[in-house]
Amino acid sequence: MDALADFLRVYQTTVGVIGINALLALSVWLTLYAGQLTLGNAAFMAIGAYGSALLGMRMGVPFPLGLTLGALLAAALALPLGLAVFRLRGVYLAIATIGFGEVLRVVLLTVPFTGKALGLNGIPAITELWHIYLSLAVVAYVLWRVQGSTVGRAWAAIREDEIAAASQGIAIRRYKLAAFVAGAAIAAWAGGLSAHLNFSIEPGDFGFTRAVQILVFAVVGGTPSVAGPIVGATLLTALPEVLRPLKEYRDIFAGLILMGVIIYLPRGLVTLAELRKTRRLQEIGVADVA
Amino acid sequence: MAEQLYNAIFVGSIYALFAVGFALVFSVLDILNLAHPVVFMLGAFVALFFMSTFGLPAALAAVAAFAVTGMFGIFLDRVAFAPLRRRGAPPLSAMISSLGFAIVVIRLMELRYGPDLVSYPAGSLPQTVLQIGDARLDGLRLLIIGLAIVLMVGLTYVVRATQLGRDIRALAENPRAARLLGVDVDRAIAATFFISSGLGGVAGALLGFAYNAIYPQMGTPYELKAFTVMVVGGMGSLPGAVLGAYILGIGEIAALVFLPAELAELRDALAFGLLFLVLVIRPRGLLGHRVADRA
Amino acid sequence: MRTRLSAVTAVIAVLLTACGGTPSTQPSASTGPKADIKVGLAISLTGAANIYGPSQQNGAKLAMDQINAAGGVDGAKIALVVEDDASARDQGITVFRKLINEDKVAAILGPTLSGVAAGAHPVAQQAGLPVIAISNTGVGIVGKCDYGACDWIFRASLGEETALPAALKAAKDKLNLKKVVLMFESDQKFAADGADIFKKAAADNGITIARTIPYKTADVDFSAFVTQAKGESPDAILASGLAGTASKVLVEVGKQFPQGLRVVGSNGFNSPAVITAAGAAAPNMIVGTAWNKASTDKTNADFVKAFKDKYGSDPDQFATQAYTAMVVLADAMKRSGNASDKAALKKALEGTKDLATPLGAFSFTPEHDVKQPVFVMTVKDGQFVPFN
């Protein structure tokens, strides 16, 4: 246990950020699972981060309540947004949600009470690792259960073929909205946790780079299962620390690893296990996978 | 006023060159190429290389930038996208692969040229100023606008009126059918990347000339603008991307000129709010002719 | 699912072990009479701020070599532990934790960015370890900090709160400024900070800001902004932005004001690369800086020569400030009597008084901020020269 304590003394932030990134990856995984490619979760994360931090700092709202209110606020904004972009698919949806994120970022840069470009500083650091990992466990468990339920099957049906799903009587609009709003709430919760992890937030933390990063976690990990986004977020968040000994070359290796993983496992890291299984079966001549 | 319109057309021309290449790869291959900003940056550095090493004049260096970044585009495809095509990977994986590629190239350039601003050799850029009435127009910008228009007319000609253009369009409609019809798909893909990256590289060189300060991370801020331009104009459409570029350029300057000073900070929110509205009201974009339905 | 989850746990465990590395080993004292004194240098060698990190590393290393060559601190050599924060707050915090808990450094210099400092400094404050900020120029770094007490944090980099008003005052005295236009990069933290400081300084000096023009890092065209500024017929332009946009502002001012117009710039203007990029327009610039490279003061001249000999290029302000901080730290270590006693080191740092450095006579204020001469500079023949 001493080794673990020593380790956490140095890497507690990294470990915390891994958990938060896993939550964010799950939030985008949820919408991807329902066939929606959204890049708006960085904006919802910002709403949770700014919402909970402002409620706590300016109005003395307790942390758990602030987190909840931040998530509810994001959900409340996601509902009309989801209705407005309901007809959009694929990259159009992605870019409409980026548009929303950029509008929000400019507002954060302009409105005095969010601190403009200076952001919010001196946010009390009250997020504990167990807050993050308990949240992650709960969210992952719930999503895993939902995946196997009627709702999960409806999402999968919509993702595979929206018209066929509609003809089967699936209320498409309702199911898609549910995924979108729930994803927003999870992202906002993660945002609230991250704001209270290290003292300070600024609008630049929630821009386009972050939006793409969240999507990359989910896709590199793999979208077939709940484990994918968690694996993806863990690997990619730990990578800069693991590669630290490479000094000025570590970006180069990080980029090469990202390319290598996605080229050899285009459906994500979690397909590695399946891939090896199929190969073995092929070798012993059990399955014909062609 | 005339000056501001001139500025708006200049900005629109840079956006157009940058976004047309981005839109071309997307419309033909469904790839969101996040390495496009890197090509933009490389164009500026290739021009620098030709000007400082061989003493080429700026206009010729821009042409050299087109050729070299065009070849680089083919290399990009071979390294980052071709392996994914062979595996039938989903389009999102191509986006991620290009992101990894971009990180590597930017870092290599930083290690080679340093991260700081680099300038073109002294005296290598034209300094003429045109005085028309009260307006002082920068001659260099006229060159940039002219070159942009020539390149875009050339692109339209290639896509509309040549066999290569027909091949590219066939590929965009349906790769499998194109192959069955005898289209040399590999050649068409290579040509797509050559044109796309070449235009992006020229855009970078021209913007570099305009302010005489280039650096390895210079492309990154323009990524979002390319997205915006492409969507406003319509994703399947190259004329749409050009239109979107000039709308964004003119819109940005108009917002600056007409917005009251207190609201000046909301300028960008207007641009992206507009983008959002266009999408909701007309999801295909202004000139888009098909509904994209890809994840 | 259960097996998948356990697989995830296994992956996490492997990664964590991998990044944990080997537990810290105490430096062996067998090589010298005394164990090395470790000093952390947490800077941005990669990422958005990687223009500055390499300069800082060069400056700090030169100081270390000179101090060690002159006998170190009471016979003990100083050993720099350099860590890159990739210009990211999360990594900056981890780097601070690593330096404190694993390397057990005696003090830390850094980090490069104020945004990273906002997260990393509290870690050192909590651990009770002296930190010298070497490039943070924003508000809230020392003295009154947002995160609570910050009495373990010192700052060797001249704050914009001092530099900008000094530059504006000098410009006003010489040019009789009455009406100005303020331009600033509204999506960058330090630039926005600088804009607020300019506003206050203008008010204090009875200068009217006729118009405030915010712009963004990603803006392509700056002529439209300057055209707008021109509409107000200002006596000068105040500009707060990073180096990338600073040169663009200068270039446009050069084009649209052929007769010349002074631009009072923020710290982002204070870079040789900006002078080159701005070309003929560079002499319009007025900037308040912490350092006059051309100063003939012996400490400075020796430093500039040693830097040039070692690296083959001139130092910039970032290198000079990092060098100075290292010199100040070593001086305090010598006076503290015991470099590993953190409270004694802090007390010795507080006692720094008129130390000869390349920045001039260097002291810490009671708020732990730097007290040094301010140099108001302009550009002539491609070099920074004193404005007056």
Write the layout of secondary structure elements.
The complex is a heterotrimer of chains A (290), B (295) and C (388).
Chain A: H1 2-33, H2 41-59, H3 63-84, H4 90-110, E1 120-121, H5 129-147, H6 150-160, H7 162-167, H8 172-195, E2 200-201, H9 208-221, H10 227-242, H11 250-264, H12 271-283
Antiparallel strand pairs in A: 1-2
Chain B: H1 2-29, H2 36-54, H3 58-86, H4 91-113, E1 129-132, E2 135-138, H5 139-161, H6 163-173, H7 175-180, H8 185-211, H9 223-233, H10 238-258, H11 267-281
Helix pairs in contact in B: 1-5, 1-8, 1-9, 1-10, 2-3, 2-8, 3-4, 3-8, 5-6, 5-8, 6-8, 9-10, 10-11
Chain C: H1 2-20, E1 37-43, H2 53-69, E2 78-84, H3 89-102, E3 107-109, H4 114-127, E4 131-133, E5 153-155, H5 160-175, E6 179-185, H6 189-204, E7 208-215, H7 223-230, E8 236-240, H8 243-256, E9 262-265, H9 272-278, E10 285-289, H10 298-311, H11 317-336, H12 342-350, E11 355-357, E12 360-364, E13 370-371, E14 375-380, E15 383-386
Summarize the structure.
The complex is a heterotrimer of chains A (290), B (295) and C (388). Chain B is mainly alpha-helical.
Explain this structure to me?
The complex is a heterotrimer of chains A (290), B (295) and C (388). Chain A is built from twelve helices and two strands; from the N terminus they run ααααβααααβαααα. By secondary structure, chain A is mainly α. In chain A, helix 1 (2-33) packs across helix 9 (208-221), helix 1 (2-33) packs across helix 10 and helix 2 runs antiparallel to helix 3. Chain A is globular and about 60 Å long. Chain B has a two-stranded antiparallel ribbon. Chain B has one domain (2-220). Helix content of chain B is 72%, strand content 3%. Chain B is mainly α and 295 residues long. Helix content of chain C is 43%, strand content 19%. In chain C, the strands form three sheets. Chain C has a seven-stranded mixed beta sheet, sandwiched between helices. In chain C, helix 9 (272-278) links the parallel strand 9 and strand 10. Chain C is globular and about 70 Å long. The relative contact order of chain C is 0.12. At the A-C interface, helix 1 and helix 10 of A face helix 1, helix 3, helix 4 and helix 6 of C.
